[in-house]
Design a protein that fits this description.
heterodimer; A: 472 residues; mainly alpha; two-stranded antiparallel ribbon; 73% helix; B: 493 residues; two-stranded antiparallel sheet; 19 helices; globular
Chain lengths: 472, 493
């Protein structure tokens, strides 16, 4: 008998989704209670995850198709925290657009479930199932503000392109299956030693599909449009949570089934990384919409994360995970600020709307200042350490070119972050924004900013947790 | 473990800034905030004086060392001072309170925020000078960009945005390569602890590249020709207090970095690249002196003169002679005092006339005599007249240079003449001559706080000009040891 306790989080969250759907059908005006219950469900799932799986070093289930290890537990917890915070700061935004419905939390929960399955997958089929579950939920979330043209456009665009990439991914999977005779990662890993070039096609297809999901250059085209069009809270969700899951799968693919084929994929990852870092930095300069700018900046940040993966070392993987964790916090802080730019039930998302913010909202601007400098990677803020660990791992493998290109693109990227700071601090002020924000929004901004600011005092804790992840 | 005096030096201004942060920002004359900031910095200055008194001059070992685990098994928070760094710390703690006194007239809005930025800046600057771990050093070195960017950008002149961006991006571009080098050092030598690295040494086959990476950062910060162009812009646009901090302390970080890291860690490479430094320094001295002669804007002129003076400093450091390095350090301290004073002098007339252009002045000697006398003193100190601290520095540098390379020394000596030319010509055009501009008659002489600041700067300038022993005694052993270590390293290669 399998030890079902290990998948208890997934089981619990699926049961909650079904329960919430039923509740929504039978009870009228149940939005508020659904929101609260789903928050509660995420909380419980998180506790179960910590209790049941955090101490497990590596266990497999269901004919080795699901794996529970330190990485999966940690990533699940980050996913859950991200999902929780998104949900918690969404409600006031959704209320203003009159889309405060039960579907929203249910969709978020389903995509979280999909991601948790992805994170734990040790089998091509399980992986694909999780991926599609989360994607389907995300398509709907992107169009969630369906009365707005942009939102529908975003959802449709995302759907078409994502379906295409899933197709590529699936084709790659079938090629890999053809060569190895199994869908299980461990078995594939043992079987794949040959240098058949068709197999390389399989790997490339899979990597392309995954690169699409994390929006690495040159498969990033969808990101700016989708990020701009989706409701802001959904954009926040897009920039944080699916990236964590996709990154985990990336790590899993590269270092379990394809470990023996490092020579074939390392160049690809280095290329993706450099292209994303450089393109993300350069393309963001001309943006005027904050959400589009964040899209390009997130492309750049994914580039740094991939730089860690390209090293083919445990330190590299750990640094990538640290990077993405810190990035999630910075993103949360940034979006919390964005959600505070509200005046009489209207949200503002142009960079120009930040003009002279520091005069009327000194505290909010100070938070933005810290967040932006942190995103730019200026010490002593958390963003610097994220980059620092990645480049430490990269330089350990003597990949100087990657490190120097990466660091030079941080200088380019610093330019557009500085531009925002300039607009906030040096430009003429505009009208005041409303200040009656929900408590949760204030809470998430305060906590994430404090984490960013004071990370340098206790940098060891995060490393300690992450250093338990040893894939290779 | 003794009282962590260095950490408290670093932390105290930040604590003061935090305190200010929680006070209410009043519009207009916010004297409470100013007194808090002033009190903090003066206490810090007293602590640093205590540090100097209890500093043991007879050893070149690092003193007051604090060593704490920071990132397990990787970086330690390690600070300490030796004869070289202690003077820079005192310079920092000495200049900062003067800056704060000087904000009276130049900063009109958001005084509290300005003071917070200055205090945080002080923390970072002290941190740079006492860090004994490369990563910690980098952290402080880079972190200083944030407050300085804001100081220039928020409180600066009309072209402040351009200048702030240029300052930030130039410096960041130089520094990221240093970060690559620092991490590489960790993988080559297994530690980033400076003391251990001094003992272990770095394999000479890596030294050239590493040296260049550090050089890229320090050259921008120094600033050396041809990457000096950010400095005049930043100086011109920054408010007076910002210019003072920039000229007096920020530029010294690079000179200090050259001595501590380039010479100390990469002796072989330093030898290799000496011709490069000589060339750039000599170009900086001659070329920027000529540029300075042409300037119409007083602040710009002083900014270019800073480049020329820093050219002397880099020249002196890489002579690798006792006199050269000692001269460089004294030149840096002296330039810290004198350039700060000159910027304040420009600030004084700017506050009254709102013009920095030389041609809008002339003949002010009869209107504001006290100012003219003090301005005269600092002008003479800047051109290195015997009896001022500027002379000691330049003289020692040239002495070291003559020992090492005759030609370079001769050309550099020409720079001294050019320096005298542009400084005296500036003084002549501003202070003497016919009083053409009628508005100048409304100018009033130095008020109490200006008088206090300028005399505070004048006293050490003169004192160390006549009696440089306290400075030389402090640095002597450390410099001798540095050179010995250098020679041993070269000989063993």
């Amino acid at each position: 008998m399998e030890n079902l306790n290990l998948v208890l989080p997934e089981i619990f969250i699926s049961l909650s989704i079904m329960f919430l759907l039923v509740l929504g059908v039978f009870k009228k005006n149940s939005s508020k209670i659904t929101f609260n219950l789903s928050l509660f469900a995420i909380l419980i799932t998180g506790i179960i995850t910590i209790n049941e799986t955090f101490s497990v070093s590596r266990e497999t289930l269901f004919n080795e198709s699901v794996v529970i290890d330190t990485m999966s537990s940690l990533m699940k917890i980050i996913t859950l925290i991200g999902g929780f915070l998104v949900l918690v700061i969404s409600s006031s935004y959704l209320k203003i657009f009159k889309i405060y419905n039960i579907e929203y939390p249910v969709l978020i929960l389903s995509s979280i479930l999909g991601m948790m399955v992805m994170i734990s997958s040790n089998d091509l089929i399980v992986f694909y199932m999780g991926l599609e579950l989360q994607s389907l939920a995300l398509y709907v979330l992107a169009t969630y503000n369906r009365d707005q043209l942009k939102s529908s456009e975003a959802g449709l665009k995302y759907f078409v392109l994502s379906a295409l990439s899933s197709g590529l991914l699936l084709y790659g999977c079938s090629l890999v299956y053809g060569f190895s005779g199994s869908t299980n990662f461990d078995i594939i890993s043992n079987q794949l030693n040959s240098n058949e070039y068709v197999l390389t096609f399989g790997i490339v297809f899979i990597l392309v599909g995954l690169a699409f999901k994390i929006s690495a250059v040159p498969f990033h085209m969808w990101a700016p449009d989708v990020y701009e069009g989706s409701p802001t809270t959904v954009t926040l969700f897009f920039t944080m949570v699916p990236k964590i899951a996709a990154l985990t799968v990336f790590i899993r693919f590269l270092y379990v089934p394809f470990l023996n084929l490092i020579d074939q994929w390392q160049m690809i990852i280095i290329f993706l990384s450099i292209a994303s870092m450089v393109f993300g930095a350069v393309a963001a300069i001309g943006q005027t919409n904050i959400k589009r700018l964040i899209a390009y900046s997130s492309i750049g940040h994914i580039g740094y994360t991939l730089a860690g993966l390209a090293t083919a070392s445990n330190e590299g993987i750990q640094s990538s995970i640290i990077y993405i964790s810190i990035y999630v916090v910075m993103n949360l802080a940034l979006f919390s600020c964005l959600l505070m730019l509200r005046r009489k039930d209207q949200y503002y998302e142009d960079i120009e709307d930040l003009s002279g913010l520091s005069k009327n909202h000194p505290l909010l601007s100070l938070c933005l200042l810290l967040i932006l400098f942190s995103l730019a990677g200026i010490p002593p803020l958390a963003g610097f350490f994220a980059k620092f660990y990645v480049f430490k791992a990269v330089l350990e493998q003597s990949m100087f070119f990657l490190a120097i290109v990466g660091l030079l693109s941080t200088v380019v990227a610093a330019f557009y972050y500085l531009r925002i700071i300039k607009i906030i601090y040096f430009d003429k002020e505009k009208d005041k924004y409303d200040t009656d924000h929900s408590l949760w929004l204030k809470f998430s901004l305060t906590v994430s900013t404090i984490l960013i600011l004071l990370y340098f005092i206790f940098p060891s804790q995060l490393i300690e947790v992450v250093s338990r992840i040893n894939i290779i | 473990m003794n009282f962590p005096i260095l950490s408290s030096l670093i932390l105290l201004p930040t604590v003061g800034a935090l305190f200010l942060f929680f006070t209410k920002d009043k519009e207009g004359n916010n004297s409470t905030a100013k007194y808090v900031a002033l009190f903090t910095t003066i206490v810090n200055f007293l602590i640093s004086i205590y540090l100097w008194i209890s500093f043991d001059q007879s050893t070149s070992n690092f003193q007051f060392v604090e060593d704490r685990t920071w990132i397990e098994g990787f970086i330690n928070y390690k600070v300490g001072v030796d004869g070289i760094s202690i003077l820079f710390i005192i310079l920092t703690t000495f200049i900062t309170p003067l800056c704060i006194i000087s904000v009276n007239n130049s900063v009109k809005n958001r005084l509290r925020d300005f003071l917070i930025a200055i205090l945080i800046m002080e923390s970072f600057m002290i941190g740079v000078f006492c860090a004994l771990d490369l990563v910690v050093f980098y952290l402080f070195f880079e972190a200083g960009l944030i407050p300085m960017f804001l100081i220039i950008g928020i409180w600066g002149g009309p072209k402040r945005v351009y200048s702030a961006f240029k300052f930030f991006l130039y410096t960041l571009l130089g520094s990221v390569l240093m970060l690559v080098a620092i991490i590489s050092i960790y993988w080559i030598a297994g530690t980033t602890d400076v003391i251990q690295l001094y003992e272990l040494g770095i394999d000479s086959k890596y030294q050239n590249l590493l040296w260049l990476a550090f050089f890229s950062s320090f050259a921008v910060k120094t600033p050396m020709w041809p990457v000096h162009t950010w400095l005049p812009d930043a100086h011109v646009e920054a408010p007076t207090a910002g210019s003072v901090l920039l000229a007096a302390i920020l530029l010294k970080m690079a000179g200090y970095g050259f001595i501590r890291f380039s010479l100390g860690l990469f002796p072989v490479a330093s030898e290799v690249f000496t011709p490069l430094i000589y060339t750039l320094s000599v170009i900086a001295i001659i070329f920027t002196s000529f540029i300075a002669l042409m300037q119409e804007d007083m602040k710009k002129l002083i900014a270019y003169s800073s480049v020329a003076h820093m050219g002397f400093v880099t020249l002196g450091i890489f002579t690798l002679q006792q006199q050269g390095i000692e001269g460089s350090i004294i030149q840096m301290i002296s330039h810290g005092l004198v350039s700060a004073a000159l910027f304040l002098c420009v600030g004084v007339v700017y506050d009254r006339m709102h013009s920095r252009m030389i041609h809008s002045y002339g003949g002010i000697v009869s209107i504001i005599p006290k100012y003219s006398i003090l301005f005269m003193l600092f002008t003479l100190a800047a051109l290195g007249l015997p009896g001022t601290s500027g002379f000691i520095g330049e003289f020692l540098i040239l002495m070291g240079a003559f020992k090492d390379n005759f030609l370079v020394a001769v050309i550099a000596s020409l720079g001294v003449i050019l320096g005298a030319a542009y400084m005296l010509w500036l003084y002549k055009r501003v202070v003497f001559g016919k009083l053409v501009n009628e508005d100048l008659k409304k100018m009033f002489d130095l008020n109490r706080s200006e008088y206090l600041i300028l005399s505070c700067l004048a006293v050490p300038t003169l004192f160390f000009g006549f009696y440089p022993d306290p400075l030389i005694n402090t640095i002597e052993v450390s410099v001798t040891d540095l050179i010995n270590m250098h020679n041993i390293n070269i000989a063993s290669k």
